[in-house]
């Protein structure tokens, strides 16, 4: 055991730990002469100290294993496949290594500890299973070792990495890293985690820039990695998620440590022993490692135990002697008896730098600690059981058989001294929590592992990750958090537009359409504002629309109202003038009653336009269209009656004609009530089926919601308008045919021109009305009413007013008689 560690006890636990980096056959004489050149992994010596600490703590515990002490034998384990079973053979069968033959007189071993690599545990487990030795692996959980049919006597102390994918993705989301690379090992563990990583990334919209799956230590894979390393460097992804272990990926990564560009952030699992390689690229100042390590409780007293360890306290520990000699420049004799002439008496492992010997209990050491307590607890329960069943006459206690221990190990459940619950059943094990570690390497060579955060799967969603960003040491020369995204985030007001044949994280940013907003970042769709709201110019929020309508107070409304009042007052003045001069020839010759009716109708037409101004309500909406239709029908039907009167007057000049009877009987006067009654009927049907109502227009004017009257039934509206047009065309046609009839007071020409203006206005109204929106549409309708009414007033009555006011000689009966003698054939219309 010159290259191992031994502590005697009533029951022994064997351990196979990787204490040396090279598996040298020490039975070879030449290798023995170079013994002092075998490099020792100082950090791995903590595994031995954890084993020793746990056993000493148990042996001092009076309530556990009464009158029975534990001891241990620790052997080095070789990584080479041909040498893995060398020391297990020596442990089982002695120095002659003959299977099933042991020169050792009394084997007190009860259990075996192996690790940390799964491949070495599997090789040793195949041998141990033949002898039913309980085997405890202290390395990371390996799915290949969880096959109980293949490894029925093997127990894994580490829990599964059930939450590591969720933990890593939560870290990516915390830093808004949505464009990352993946590098995993081509084994069962790596592939399972790879699947979970992809699922979690897909859920949270994190895209994979590239994906590398590497098998361990194969030349072909090395060349494969060389062909795609440029993809890593050329990719815009500055984050690389790595899941693997030292055995599968570390050596390949070291070969290319100089090829990775500066500033890459590597998110890793805790299966990497980062500080065992002096030139390992993750420890350089150009790359940033963030490591997820399974959380474990602190074991009180362990650091004090390390400070007290020295070779004189453990004289049979040759590994400690070698560590002491190399670290503190002691001199030892070539014999097995070691002297420490030049060593400082107060030297301690606590003096060694952290990158050489870490005093903080590692995850593997904690699993060894728990494995020892599991063995002790199982032994304790087995001895209690034996005490109950043994015969009263037997007082001799026998060392328990390793095979008997399995029954008590499988269902064991207890709390270790650190307060953690220990369960070996994989189905009942709790999900692990994770510490997030960052390695500080500034100044160069510091290699200090610092806890910067924690992930707990038991916390509420959104609070599972806690991180102290100010404690994270990024790459040298970098002061800001690294950025890793395929496309820059689309800010508020913009939506994402996927790029063709690229990942979902690669997109363009497009401004939201009008009246739609995006109040977050990287939104797929813009949200349309409600009708009573509108989007601001930045498209970031919906603002309340201001109510708008054609009000009396605004310039356009005020102008139309003034025009309406002025036109109605002017018409009233004309009416007053006609009443005052009712006995004059011009007034009498043009049928006074029809002129009065027409003037009153025009006054009402001008005033009904006021119903279109101001805030609409149900009453005004109904009155607008009904009043407009009926009043204008009355006006146009009056014009039609006047036209018919002119025609009948000329047709009735011959004696005995029926036309004269129609003229004398006043038949044209019935045109007005009949035509108006038809329009009233149409309006009644309109009101009974789909009457006008108050409506809103949220699209015509930005930032405003226009309150207006909806016509209700457009069919009824166009029927009313069409009927009015029919009357106007009839009047125009008849007046046009009578325009050349002779007569001093023949107004057929004026009626023709007035109806031409009237029809022109409303023909122009239809296209303009349909192209206008909002308040402009209302203004167009009001202006059409005023224009058509003004056309009738001006064309029909302005010549008459001119004669009455400025040419009174033309408005006298004397003048009328003088002209009658000269024009005997001229009729009288009144």
UniProtKB/TrEMBL annotation:
<keyword id="KW-0297">G-protein coupled receptor</keyword>
<dbReference type="InterPro" id="IPR017978">
    <property type="entry name" value="GPCR_3_C"/>
</dbReference>
<dbReference type="InterPro" id="IPR028082">
    <property type="entry name" value="Peripla_BP_I"/>
</dbReference>
<feature type="transmembrane region" description="Helical">
    <location>
        <begin position="750"/>
        <end position="770"/>
    </location>
</feature>
<feature type="domain" description="G-protein coupled receptors family 3 profile">
    <location>
        <begin position="556"/>
        <end position="820"/>
    </location>
</feature>
<feature type="transmembrane region" description="Helical">
    <location>
        <begin position="662"/>
        <end position="687"/>
    </location>
</feature>
<feature type="transmembrane region" description="Helical">
    <location>
        <begin position="776"/>
        <end position="797"/>
    </location>
</feature>
<dbReference type="InterPro" id="IPR004073">
    <property type="entry name" value="GPCR_3_vmron_rcpt_2"/>
</dbReference>
<keyword id="KW-0732">Signal</keyword>
<keyword id="KW-0472">Membrane</keyword>
<dbReference type="InterPro" id="IPR000068">
    <property type="entry name" value="GPCR_3_Ca_sens_rcpt-rel"/>
</dbReference>
<feature type="transmembrane region" description="Helical">
    <location>
        <begin position="715"/>
        <end position="738"/>
    </location>
</feature>
<feature type="transmembrane region" description="Helical">
    <location>
        <begin position="626"/>
        <end position="650"/>
    </location>
</feature>
<dbReference type="Pfam" id="PF07562">
    <property type="entry name" value="NCD3G"/>
</dbReference>
<dbReference type="InterPro" id="IPR000337">
    <property type="entry name" value="GPCR_3"/>
</dbReference>
<dbReference type="GO" id="GO:0004930">
    <property type="term" value="F:G protein-coupled receptor activity"/>
</dbReference>
<dbReference type="InterPro" id="IPR038550">
    <property type="entry name" value="GPCR_3_9-Cys_sf"/>
</dbReference>
<dbReference type="InterPro" id="IPR001828">
    <property type="entry name" value="ANF_lig-bd_rcpt"/>
</dbReference>
<keyword id="KW-1133">Transmembrane helix</keyword>
<dbReference type="GO" id="GO:0005886">
    <property type="term" value="C:plasma membrane"/>
</dbReference>
<comment type="similarity">
    <text>Belongs to the G-protein coupled receptor 3 family.</text>
</comment>
<feature type="transmembrane region" description="Helical">
    <location>
        <begin position="593"/>
        <end position="614"/>
    </location>
</feature>
<keyword id="KW-0675">Receptor</keyword>
<feature type="transmembrane region" description="Helical">
    <location>
        <begin position="556"/>
        <end position="581"/>
    </location>
</feature>
<keyword id="KW-1003">Cell membrane</keyword>
<protein>
    <submittedName>
        <fullName>Vomeronasal type-2 receptor 116-like</fullName>
    </submittedName>
</protein>
<keyword id="KW-0812">Transmembrane</keyword>
<keyword id="KW-0325">Glycoprotein</keyword>
<keyword id="KW-0807">Transducer</keyword>
<dbReference type="InterPro" id="IPR011500">
    <property type="entry name" value="GPCR_3_9-Cys_dom"/>
</dbReference>
<dbReference type="Pfam" id="PF00003">
    <property type="entry name" value="7tm_3"/>
</dbReference>
<dbReference type="Pfam" id="PF01094">
    <property type="entry name" value="ANF_receptor"/>
</dbReference>
């Amino acid at each position: 055991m010159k290259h191992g560690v031994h502590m005697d006890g009533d029951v022994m636990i064997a351990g196979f730990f990787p204490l040396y980096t090279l598996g040298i056959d020490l039975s070879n004489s030449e290798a023995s002469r170079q013994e002092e050149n075998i490099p020792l992994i100082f950090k791995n010596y903590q595994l031995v100290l954890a084993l020793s600490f746990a056993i000493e703590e148990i042996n001092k515990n009076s309530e556990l294993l009464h009158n029975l002490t534990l001891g241990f034998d620790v052997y080095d384990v070789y990584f080479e496949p041909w040498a893995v079973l060398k020391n297990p053979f020596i442990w089982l069968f002695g120095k002659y290594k003959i299977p099933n033959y042991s020169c050792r007189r009394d084997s007190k071993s009860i259990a075996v500890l192996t690790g940390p690599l799964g491949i070495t545990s599997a090789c040793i487990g195949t041998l141990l299973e033949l002898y039913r030795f309980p085997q405890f692996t202290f390395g990371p959980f390996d799915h290949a070792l969880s096959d109980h049919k293949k490894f029925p006597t093997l127990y894994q102390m580490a829990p599964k990495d059930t939450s590591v994918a969720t933990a890593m993705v939560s870290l990516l989301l915390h830093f808004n890293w949505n464009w990352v690379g993946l590098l995993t090992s081509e084994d069962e563990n790596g592939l399972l985690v790879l699947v979970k990583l992809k699922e979690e990334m897909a859920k949270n919209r994190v895209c994979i820039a590239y994906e590398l799956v590497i098998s361990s230590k194969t030349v072909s894979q090395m060349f494969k990695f060389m062909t795609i390393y440029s993809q890593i460097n050329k990719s815009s992804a500055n984050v690389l998620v790595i899941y693997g272990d030292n055995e599968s990926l570390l050596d390949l990564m070291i070969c290319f440590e100089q090829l990775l560009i500066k500033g890459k952030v590597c998110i890793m699992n805790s299966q990497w022993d980062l500080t065992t390689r002096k030139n390992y690229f993750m420890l350089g100042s150009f790359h940033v490692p963030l490591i997820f390590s399974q959380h474990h409780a602190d074991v009180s007293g362990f650091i004090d135990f390390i400070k007290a360890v020295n070779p004189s306290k453990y004289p049979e520990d040759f590994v400690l002697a070698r560590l002491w000699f190399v670290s503190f420049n002691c001199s030892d004799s070539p014999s097995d008896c070691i002297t420490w002439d030049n060593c400082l008496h107060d030297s301690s492992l606590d003096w060694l730098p952290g990158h050489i010997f870490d005093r903080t209990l590692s995850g593997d050491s904690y699993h060894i600690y728990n494995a020892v307590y599991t063995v002790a607890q199982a032994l304790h329960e087995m001895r209690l059981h034996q005490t109950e069943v043994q015969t009263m006459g037997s007082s001799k206690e026998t060392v328990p058989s390793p095979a008997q221990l399995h029954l008590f190990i499988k269902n064991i459940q207890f709390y270790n001294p650190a307060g953690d619950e220990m369960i070996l059943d994989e189905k009942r094990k709790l999900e692990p929590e994770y510490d997030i570690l960052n390695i500080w390497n500034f100044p160069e060579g510091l290699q200090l592992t610092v806890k910067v955060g924690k992930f707990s799967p038991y916390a509420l969603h959104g609070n599972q990750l806690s991180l102290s960003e100010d404690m994270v040491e990024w790459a040298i020369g970098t002061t800001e958090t690294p950025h890793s995204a395929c496309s820059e985030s689309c800010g508020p007001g913009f939506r994402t537009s996927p790029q063709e044949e690229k990942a979902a994280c690669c997109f363009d940013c497009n401004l939201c359409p009008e009246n739609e907003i995006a109040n977050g970042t990287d939104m797929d769709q813009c949200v349309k504002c409600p009708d009573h709201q509108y989007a601001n110019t930045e498209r970031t929020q919906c603002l309340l629309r201001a109510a708008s309508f054609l009000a009396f107070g605004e310039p356009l409304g005020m102008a139309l109202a003034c025009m309406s009042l002025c036109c109605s007052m002017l018409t009233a003045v004309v009416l007053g003038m006609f009443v005052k001069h009712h006995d004059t020839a011009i007034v009498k010759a043009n049928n006074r009653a029809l002129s009065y009716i027409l003037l009153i109708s025009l006054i009402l037409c001008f005033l009904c336009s006021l119903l279109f101004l101001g805030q609409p309500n149900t009453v005004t909406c109904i009155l607008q269209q009904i009043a407009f239709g009926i009043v204008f029908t009355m006006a146009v039907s009056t014009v039609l009656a006047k036209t018919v009167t002119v025609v009948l007057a000329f047709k009735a000049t011959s004696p005995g004609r029926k036309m004269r009877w129609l003229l004398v009987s006043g038949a044209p006067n019935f045109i007005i009530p009949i035509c108006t009654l038809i329009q009233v009927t149409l309006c009644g049907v309109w009101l009974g089926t789909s009457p006008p109502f108050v409506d809103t227009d949220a699209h015509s004017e930005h930032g405003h919601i226009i309150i207006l009257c909806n016509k209700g039934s457009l069919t009824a509206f166009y029927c009313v308008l069409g009927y009015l047009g029919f009357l106007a065309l009839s009047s125009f046609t008849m007046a046009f045919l009578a325009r050349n009839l002779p007569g001093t007071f023949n107004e057929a020409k004026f009626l023709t021109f007035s109806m031409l203006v009237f029809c022109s206005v409303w023909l122009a109204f239809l296209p303009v009305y349909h192209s206008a929106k909002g308040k402009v549409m209302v203004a167009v309708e009001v202006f059409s009413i005023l224009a058509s009414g003004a056309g009738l007033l001006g064309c029909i009555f302005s010549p008459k007013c001119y004669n009455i006011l400025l040419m009174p000689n033309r408005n006298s009966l004397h003048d009328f008689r003088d002209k009658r003698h000269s024009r005997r054939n001229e009729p009288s219309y009144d």
